[in-house]
C-alpha cells in the first residue's frame, strides 16, 4: 500500500488529511505534527491580548482526524527529497510515496538587530501566551515600579496581525486599567509601520475607517517609519525612539525553517512551486500554505499567504495526490478569493466580500461575520461538538 505523509496540522494540513481520508482510497495516511493540538492561527492575537483562552482556539488532532489516519506527534527536522524520507526528532525517518508539506510560518525579523531578543512575536500558542503574560505582568508591575514605560506598548508593523491585535487590545484595555488600578491617561499605544500604507489590501475608505476607530481609542500610527533596531524597552527608527516595555513584533512572516534546512531552492523559506503545487522535479511532493510560493497567473506574483489560500491549496494538493495514485494527470491550482475580514476586537472590523463584486462592510456587522468565519473554520476542520465547545 502506498504511503501519503502530511506534514503540519494547520489549516492546510488538516484540510488535506480530511480530503484524502474522505476519498476512501486504499492508502496509508500519516499526519505528523509537533503538538497534539491544532490551533487557529488567525485567532492568536486574542490569546495574546487575553480575550480568549488557549482552549478556545485549539482542538485535539487525534480526535479530529477521520478514522484510520495515523498521527505522529513529533518535530520534523528535514525532508530528504532523494530518498523520499522525512527525518523526525524522536521517531527517526519516515518514508513516503507522496508528501503534502504544510509546515506553516515563523516570525520574520528581516535581520533587524535586537528584534528577536526584544520583540514579542505572535506565531503560535506559546508565543501568544508569552505575549499575554508579558503584557499583564508589565501593566500589573506599574503599581510598584511607577515606570511609565510599563504603560507603553509598541506594535511593530501595521499589517493584518498588528491591526487585529490593536483592535483586541483597545477593546480589553479598559478592563485591564480597572483591574490593575492604572492611570488611563498615561497608557500609550504606538503602531510603527515602515511603508506609507496601513492594511494595503483594503480599499482606502475602509482603511480610514479602521484607523479612525483605533485612533479614537488611543492608538497613534507612525507610517513611513521603518524600524531599524530594537533595544530592551526601545524601538528605534533611525534616530527616532519609541519607548515601551511591551514590544509586539508583527512585521510579517516567513515559511518554516525546515525548508531551508532541507536544502530547497527557497526565499524566506518559501519555494516557487509548479502549477499543480508540486516541487520542480518531484511530482510526488506538494507544498501548501506559507512555505509555498504559488504564482498568481493574473499578476505573476505569488499569492499572499492566508488561511483561506492554504485551504484552497490543500484541496488541490489532495486532489493531485489522488489523481497521481489513480494514474491520472494533476490539475492546476486556481483561486477565487471569497473575501477578506479584519477584526477590530470582538464587535467591529472591516471586510471586503469578493463574491458579491467587492461588497464593503465595516462596523459591528463584521464582528458577527468574523465569528461565523471562525466557527466555520473549526467546524470544517473538526466537528460540530468542537465548535460548540470553543464558544
Ligand atoms: P504582513 O506582511 O501582512 O504585515 C507586516 C507589516 O509590517 C507590513 O505592513 C510591513 O510593511 C511592516 N513591516 C515590515 N518590516 C518593518 C519594519 N522594519 N518596520 C516597520 N514595519 C515593518 O504580516 P502579518 O500581519 O504578520 O500577516 C502575515 C500573513 O498572514 C499575511 O499574509 C496576512 O495576510 C495573513 N493574515 C491574515 C489575517 C486575516 O485574514 N484576517 C489575519 C492575520 C494574518
TrEMBL record:
Keywords: FAD, Flavoprotein, Oxidoreductase
Named cofactor requirement(s): FAD
Coiled coil: none
Top-level lineage group: Bacteria
Pfam family, one: Pyr_redox_2
InterPro entries: FAD/NAD-bd_sf, FAD/NAD-binding_dom, NADH-Q_oxidoreductase
PANTHER family: 64 KDA MITOCHONDRIAL NADH DEHYDROGENASE (EUROFUNG), APOPTOSIS-INDUCING FACTOR 1
Protein name, UniProt field: NAD(P)/FAD-dependent oxidoreductase
Amino acid at each position: 500500500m502506498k504511503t501519503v505523509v502530511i506534514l503540519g496540522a494547520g489549516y492546510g494540513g488538516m484540510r488535506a488529511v480530511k480530503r484524502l481520508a474522505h476519498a476512501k482510497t486504499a492508502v496509508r495516511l500519516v499526519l505528523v505534527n509537533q503538538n497534539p493540538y491544532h490551533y487557529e492561527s488567525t485567532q492568536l492575537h486574542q490569546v495574546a491580548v487575553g480575550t480568549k483562552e488557549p482552549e478556545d482556539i485549539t482542538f485535539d488532532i487525534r480526535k479530529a482526524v477521520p478514522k484510520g489516519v495515523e498521527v505522529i506527534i513529533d518535530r520534523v527536522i528535514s525532508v530528504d527529497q532523494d530518498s523520499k524520507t522525512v527525518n523526525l526528532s524522536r521517531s527517526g525517518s519516515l518514508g513516503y510515496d507522496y508528501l503534502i508539506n504544510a509546515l506553516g510560518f515563523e516570525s520574520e525579523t528581516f535581520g533587524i538587530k535586537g528584534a528577536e531578543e526584544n520583540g514579542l512575536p505572535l506565531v503560535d500558542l506559546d508565543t501568544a501566551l508569552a505575549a499575554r503574560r508579558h503584557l499583564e505582568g508589565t501593566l500589573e508591575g506599574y503599581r510598584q515600579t511607577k515606570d511609565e514605560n510599563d504603560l507603553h506598548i509598541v506594535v511593530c508593523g501595521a499589517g493584518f496581525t498588528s491591526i487585529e491585535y490593536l483592535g483586541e487590545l483597545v477593546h480589553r484595555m479598559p478592563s485591564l486599567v480597572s483591574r490593575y488600578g492604572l492611570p488611563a491617561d498615561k497608557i500609550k499605544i504606538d503602531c510603527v509601520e515602515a511603508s506609507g500604507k496601513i492594511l494595503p489590501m483594503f480599499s482606502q475608505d475602509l482603511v480610514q475607517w479602521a484607523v479612525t476607530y483605533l485612533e479614537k481609542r488611543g492608538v497613534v500610527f507612525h507610517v513611513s517609519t521603518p524600524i531599524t533596531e530594537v533595544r530592551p524597552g526601545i524601538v528605534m527608527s533611525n534616530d527616532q525612539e519609541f519607548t515601551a516595555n511591551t514590544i509586539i513584533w508583527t512585521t510579517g512572516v516567513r515559511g518554516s525553517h525546515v525548508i531551508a534546512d532541507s536544502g530547497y531552492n527557497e526565499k524566506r523559506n518559501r519555494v516557487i512551486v509548479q502549477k499543480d503545487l508540486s516541487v520542480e522535479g518531484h511530482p510526488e511532493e506538494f507544498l501548501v500554505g506559507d512555505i509555498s510560493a504559488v504564482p498568481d497567473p493574473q499578476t505573476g506574483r505569488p499569492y499572499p499567504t492566508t488561511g483561506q489560500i492554504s485551504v484552497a491549496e490543500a484541496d488541490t494538493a489532495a486532489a493531485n495526490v489522488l489523481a497521481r495514485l489513480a494514474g491520472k494527470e494533476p490539475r492546476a491550482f486556481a483561486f477565487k478569493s471569497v473575501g477578506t475580514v479584519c477584526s477590530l476586537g470582538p464587535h467591529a472590523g472591516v471586510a471586503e466580500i469578493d463574491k458579491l463584486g467587492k461588497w464593503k462592510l465595516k462596523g459591528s456587522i463584521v464582528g458577527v461575520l468574523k465569528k461565523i468565519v471562525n466557527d466555520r473554520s473549526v467546524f470544517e476542520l473538526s466537528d460540530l461538538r468542537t465548535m460548540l465547545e470553543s464558544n
